[in-house]
Amino acid sequence: MLKTENISINFGGLKALDNVSISIKNESITALIGPNGAGKTTLFNIITGFLKPTSGKIIFENQNITNFSPNKIFKLGIVRTFQNLKIIKEVTVKENLILGLLKKELKYNYLKNFLRLDKDYRKFIDEKLDEALEFFDIADWKNKTPEESPYGVLKLLELARGYLAKPKLLLLDEPAAGLNNFEKEKMVEIIKRLNEEGVTILMVEHDMNFISSLATHVYCLNFGKIIAEGDFKSVRNNPEVLKAYLGEEDA
Protein backbone atom coordinates (compact mmCIF):
# COMPACT_ATOMS: atom_id res chain seq x y z
CA MET A 1 0.00 0.00 0.00
CA LEU A 2 2.67 2.50 1.05
CA LYS A 3 6.43 2.48 0.54
CA THR A 4 9.13 4.93 1.44
CA GLU A 5 12.16 4.55 -0.81
CA ASN A 6 15.51 5.77 0.52
CA ILE A 7 14.02 8.77 2.32
CA SER A 8 16.60 11.23 3.65
CA ILE A 9 16.16 14.69 5.12
CA ASN A 10 18.67 17.18 6.47
CA PHE A 11 18.10 19.96 8.99
CA GLY A 12 21.13 22.18 8.66
CA GLY A 13 24.07 19.85 9.15
CA LEU A 14 21.97 17.15 10.85
CA LYS A 15 20.69 14.18 8.85
CA ALA A 16 17.37 13.46 10.59
CA LEU A 17 16.55 10.53 8.28
CA ASP A 18 19.11 8.51 6.35
CA ASN A 19 17.92 6.32 3.45
CA VAL A 20 14.81 5.11 5.26
CA SER A 21 12.86 2.46 3.35
CA ILE A 22 9.74 0.86 4.80
CA SER A 23 6.84 -1.04 3.25
CA ILE A 24 3.32 -1.06 4.68
CA LYS A 25 1.07 -3.87 3.44
CA ASN A 26 -2.63 -3.35 2.88
CA GLU A 27 -4.76 -4.03 6.00
CA SER A 28 -1.69 -4.61 8.18
CA ILE A 29 -0.78 -3.09 11.54
CA THR A 30 2.80 -1.82 11.49
CA ALA A 31 4.67 -0.28 14.42
CA LEU A 32 7.53 2.19 14.22
CA ILE A 33 9.68 2.19 17.35
CA GLY A 34 12.89 3.84 18.45
CA PRO A 35 14.26 6.17 21.13
CA ASN A 36 13.28 9.82 21.34
CA GLY A 37 14.87 11.79 18.52
CA ALA A 38 15.23 8.73 16.28
CA GLY A 39 13.24 10.33 13.44
CA LYS A 40 9.82 8.75 13.87
CA THR A 41 7.82 11.98 13.91
CA THR A 42 9.89 13.35 11.03
CA LEU A 43 8.97 10.30 8.95
CA PHE A 44 5.28 10.79 9.80
CA ASN A 45 5.56 14.44 8.74
CA ILE A 46 7.09 13.42 5.41
CA ILE A 47 4.47 10.75 4.72
CA THR A 48 1.68 13.27 5.38
CA GLY A 49 3.29 15.99 3.28
CA PHE A 50 4.18 18.47 6.03
CA LEU A 51 7.88 18.01 5.30
CA LYS A 52 9.57 17.33 1.97
CA PRO A 53 12.52 14.93 1.92
CA THR A 54 15.96 15.95 0.72
CA SER A 55 15.97 12.76 -1.35
CA GLY A 56 13.89 9.62 -1.79
CA LYS A 57 10.26 8.88 -2.68
CA ILE A 58 6.92 8.14 -1.04
CA ILE A 59 4.77 5.71 -3.02
CA PHE A 60 1.11 5.23 -2.06
CA GLU A 61 -1.01 2.77 -4.02
CA ASN A 62 1.56 2.82 -6.85
CA GLN A 63 1.48 6.64 -7.04
CA ASN A 64 4.42 8.91 -6.25
CA ILE A 65 3.06 11.34 -3.63
CA THR A 66 6.41 12.78 -2.51
CA ASN A 67 5.60 16.33 -3.60
CA PHE A 68 1.87 16.28 -2.88
CA SER A 69 0.40 18.83 -0.47
CA PRO A 70 -0.88 17.66 2.94
CA ASN A 71 -4.46 18.29 1.80
CA LYS A 72 -4.04 16.22 -1.36
CA ILE A 73 -2.46 13.39 0.63
CA PHE A 74 -5.35 13.55 3.10
CA LYS A 75 -7.87 13.29 0.25
CA LEU A 76 -6.09 10.14 -0.98
CA GLY A 77 -6.92 8.52 2.36
CA ILE A 78 -3.81 9.01 4.50
CA VAL A 79 -5.03 10.34 7.85
CA ARG A 80 -3.03 11.10 10.98
CA THR A 81 -3.93 11.37 14.65
CA PHE A 82 -1.78 13.35 17.06
CA GLN A 83 -0.28 12.60 20.47
CA ASN A 84 -1.08 16.19 21.48
CA LEU A 85 -4.82 15.95 20.95
CA LYS A 86 -6.27 18.37 18.39
CA ILE A 87 -9.57 18.80 20.23
CA ILE A 88 -11.77 21.87 20.63
CA LYS A 89 -12.39 22.36 24.34
CA GLU A 90 -15.41 24.65 24.00
CA VAL A 91 -17.72 22.14 22.28
CA THR A 92 -18.99 18.67 23.19
CA VAL A 93 -17.42 15.32 22.38
CA LYS A 94 -20.06 14.71 19.71
CA GLU A 95 -19.56 18.14 18.17
CA ASN A 96 -15.82 17.46 17.99
CA LEU A 97 -16.61 14.41 15.87
CA ILE A 98 -18.18 16.62 13.21
CA LEU A 99 -14.69 17.78 12.27
CA GLY A 100 -13.71 14.27 11.26
CA LEU A 101 -16.89 13.58 9.32
CA LEU A 102 -17.05 16.84 7.40
CA LYS A 103 -13.38 17.66 6.91
CA LYS A 104 -13.32 16.25 3.39
CA GLU A 105 -16.43 18.21 2.39
CA LEU A 106 -16.30 21.56 4.20
CA LYS A 107 -13.01 23.40 4.17
CA TYR A 108 -13.58 26.03 6.84
CA ASN A 109 -15.76 26.68 9.89
CA TYR A 110 -17.03 23.11 10.10
CA LEU A 111 -19.52 23.56 12.94
CA LYS A 112 -21.10 26.68 11.43
CA ASN A 113 -21.41 25.02 8.02
CA PHE A 114 -22.92 21.92 9.63
CA LEU A 115 -25.82 24.03 10.90
CA ARG A 116 -26.45 25.27 7.34
CA LEU A 117 -26.73 21.81 5.81
CA ASP A 118 -29.93 20.38 4.39
CA LYS A 119 -32.16 18.97 7.15
CA ASP A 120 -32.12 15.41 5.79
CA TYR A 121 -28.35 15.49 5.34
CA ARG A 122 -27.91 16.81 8.88
CA LYS A 123 -30.00 13.86 10.09
CA PHE A 124 -27.82 11.46 8.10
CA ILE A 125 -24.66 12.98 9.59
CA ASP A 126 -26.14 12.89 13.08
CA GLU A 127 -26.79 9.15 12.68
CA LYS A 128 -23.21 8.62 11.49
CA LEU A 129 -21.91 10.46 14.54
CA ASP A 130 -24.00 8.32 16.88
CA GLU A 131 -22.76 5.15 15.16
CA ALA A 132 -19.16 6.29 15.66
CA LEU A 133 -19.78 7.15 19.31
CA GLU A 134 -21.07 3.60 19.87
CA PHE A 135 -18.28 1.98 17.83
CA PHE A 136 -15.60 3.75 19.88
CA ASP A 137 -17.50 3.20 23.15
CA ILE A 138 -17.70 6.91 24.03
CA ALA A 139 -21.47 7.45 23.61
CA ASP A 140 -21.91 8.07 27.34
CA TRP A 141 -19.71 11.16 26.99
CA LYS A 142 -21.20 12.63 23.82
CA ASN A 143 -22.78 15.65 25.52
CA LYS A 144 -19.79 16.37 27.76
CA THR A 145 -17.05 18.82 26.92
CA PRO A 146 -13.48 17.54 26.65
CA GLU A 147 -12.69 19.17 29.99
CA GLU A 148 -15.43 17.03 31.58
CA SER A 149 -14.19 13.81 29.96
CA PRO A 150 -11.45 11.34 31.00
CA TYR A 151 -8.22 11.38 29.02
CA GLY A 152 -8.91 7.88 27.69
CA VAL A 153 -12.18 9.10 26.17
CA LEU A 154 -10.35 11.98 24.48
CA LYS A 155 -7.80 9.58 22.97
CA LEU A 156 -10.66 7.51 21.56
CA LEU A 157 -12.31 10.71 20.32
CA GLU A 158 -9.15 11.62 18.40
CA LEU A 159 -9.10 8.11 16.92
CA ALA A 160 -12.81 8.34 16.03
CA ARG A 161 -12.27 11.64 14.21
CA GLY A 162 -9.51 10.04 12.18
CA TYR A 163 -11.74 7.09 11.31
CA LEU A 164 -14.63 9.31 10.23
CA ALA A 165 -12.33 10.90 7.65
CA LYS A 166 -12.51 7.51 5.87
CA PRO A 167 -8.81 6.60 5.92
CA LYS A 168 -7.20 3.91 3.88
CA LEU A 169 -4.03 4.36 5.95
CA LEU A 170 -4.31 5.67 9.51
CA LEU A 171 -1.17 7.00 11.19
CA LEU A 172 -1.36 6.83 14.99
CA ASP A 173 1.03 8.92 17.07
CA GLU A 174 1.56 7.12 20.41
CA PRO A 175 -2.03 5.89 20.89
CA ALA A 176 -1.20 4.32 24.27
CA ALA A 177 0.53 7.38 25.76
CA GLY A 178 -1.05 8.57 29.00
CA LEU A 179 -3.51 5.67 29.27
CA ASN A 180 -3.98 3.37 32.25
CA ASN A 181 -4.02 -0.40 31.76
CA PHE A 182 -7.81 -0.59 31.34
CA GLU A 183 -7.77 2.21 28.77
CA LYS A 184 -4.91 0.54 26.90
CA GLU A 185 -6.89 -2.70 26.66
CA LYS A 186 -9.84 -0.80 25.24
CA MET A 187 -7.58 1.03 22.77
CA VAL A 188 -6.12 -2.30 21.59
CA GLU A 189 -9.63 -3.66 21.07
CA ILE A 190 -10.74 -0.59 19.10
CA ILE A 191 -7.63 -0.56 16.87
CA LYS A 192 -8.16 -4.26 16.09
CA ARG A 193 -11.77 -3.51 15.13
CA LEU A 194 -10.65 -0.66 12.88
CA ASN A 195 -8.18 -2.99 11.20
CA GLU A 196 -10.90 -5.61 10.72
CA GLU A 197 -12.95 -2.88 9.00
CA GLY A 198 -10.16 -2.67 6.41
CA VAL A 199 -8.12 0.25 7.77
CA THR A 200 -4.34 -0.13 7.45
CA ILE A 201 -2.50 1.10 10.55
CA LEU A 202 0.97 2.61 10.98
CA MET A 203 1.71 3.63 14.55
CA VAL A 204 4.52 5.21 16.50
CA GLU A 205 4.55 3.73 19.99
CA HIS A 206 6.86 3.16 22.96
CA ASP A 207 4.77 0.68 24.96
CA MET A 208 6.15 -2.75 24.06
CA ASN A 209 3.21 -4.71 25.49
CA PHE A 210 0.82 -2.56 23.49
CA ILE A 211 2.84 -3.15 20.32
CA SER A 212 3.05 -6.90 20.88
CA SER A 213 -0.76 -7.03 21.14
CA LEU A 214 -1.26 -5.40 17.76
CA ALA A 215 1.65 -5.18 15.35
CA THR A 216 2.10 -7.65 12.50
CA HIS A 217 5.37 -5.94 11.52
CA VAL A 218 7.80 -3.68 13.37
CA TYR A 219 10.51 -1.25 12.23
CA CYS A 220 13.07 0.26 14.59
CA LEU A 221 14.64 3.66 13.87
CA ASN A 222 17.78 4.94 15.55
CA PHE A 223 19.62 8.14 14.61
CA GLY A 224 17.51 8.35 11.46
CA LYS A 225 18.30 4.84 10.20
CA ILE A 226 16.29 1.62 10.15
CA ILE A 227 18.32 -0.76 12.31
CA ALA A 228 15.86 -3.69 12.44
CA GLU A 229 12.58 -4.92 11.01
CA GLY A 230 10.44 -8.03 11.28
CA ASP A 231 7.88 -9.47 13.65
CA PHE A 232 7.75 -8.10 17.18
CA LYS A 233 9.73 -10.90 18.80
CA SER A 234 12.63 -10.78 16.34
CA VAL A 235 12.91 -6.99 16.58
CA ARG A 236 12.50 -7.06 20.36
CA ASN A 237 15.45 -9.44 20.67
CA ASN A 238 17.67 -7.78 18.06
CA PRO A 239 20.98 -6.78 19.73
CA GLU A 240 21.04 -3.42 17.96
CA VAL A 241 17.53 -2.65 19.19
CA LEU A 242 18.36 -3.72 22.73
CA LYS A 243 21.38 -1.47 22.66
CA ALA A 244 19.77 1.54 21.01
CA TYR A 245 16.27 1.54 22.44
CA LEU A 246 15.19 -1.06 24.93
CA GLY A 247 18.47 -0.95 26.83
CA GLU A 248 17.81 2.73 27.38
CA GLU A 249 14.80 1.82 29.52
CA ASP A 250 16.80 -0.64 31.59
CA ALA A 251 19.62 1.81 32.24
TrEMBL record:
Q: Please list the coiled coil stretches.
A: none
Xref: InterPro entries: AAA+_ATPase, ABC_AA/LPS_Transport, ABC_transporter-like_ATP-bd, BCA_ABC_TP_C, P-loop_NTPase
The entry's cellular-component GO terms read: plasma membrane
Domain of life where this protein originates = Bacteria
The record's listing under SUPFAM superfamilies reads: P-loop containing nucleoside triphosphate hydrolases (SSF52540)
Report the SMART domains cross-referenced here.
Answer: AAA
The ABC transporter domain is annotated at: 2-248
Instruction: State the CDD domains in the record.
Output: ABC_Mj1267_LivG_branched
Q: Which GO terms describe its molecular function?
A: ATP binding; ATP hydrolysis activity
Q: Provide this UniProt record's keywords sorted from A to Z.
A: ATP-binding, Nucleotide-binding, Transport
Gene3D superfamilies, A to Z: P-loop containing nucleotide triphosphate hydrolases
One Pfam family linked to the record? ABC_tran
Checking PANTHER family in the record gives: CONSERVED COMPONENT OF ABC TRANSPORTER FOR NATURAL AMINO ACIDS-RELATED (PTHR45772)
Q: What protein does this entry describe? A: Branched-chain amino acid ABC transporter, ATP-binding protein
Q: Which organism is it from?
A: Deferribacter desulfuricans (strain DSM 14783 / JCM 11476 / NBRC 101012 / SSM1)
